[in-house]
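Running low. Invent one:
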Amino acid sequence: MQNIYKIKRAFLIPFSVTIVLLSLLFGLSLITGQTWEKIILAVLCVSILAICVEAARREIIVNEEGLKIKKFFWVKNFTWPEITHLAVVVMRNKAYFLLTTTKGFYIFSNLLENHAALVRFLLDKLGQEKVEVEVTNYLEHPIERRSLIVMSWVAVIVISIIIILKLVIACLNIA
């Protein structure tokens, strides 16, 4: 049995749409924009594209032998005995889980799909002695992180409005 946990699609979809809209806005700025606008939009497009690719490729894979953390440029494998501690820090609607191993420490958040099942699986595999009490308490009332998803959709709306305004102004200047 192998379970794969990825960043929520509810976040990746609006984030990807944001990249497409920013690229469209950048294309429009190449035609009608000023130099500073082109530079800022180019930097934003490249930065957000890199973040999106990294987020889309991020995975935590668990099975009976251990845990694998995949990011864009690297993969880390751990057997269950190599994992020494699991802790959680909760800040309002954000939860960050600290996984300490013999090879270092790794952080994941509640932005993962079905993160509570992942934490429950880790708790079962690691046992109570390696897991802080706060993690067990968290599992009684897990927190869903919706604020980033909402902010991503707000970004989509704002960028769409900017594109529409830019097109309207360009059409008025032509007429």
About this structure: The mean pLDDT is 91. The longest strand covers residues 83-91. The two ends are 64 Å apart (CA to CA).
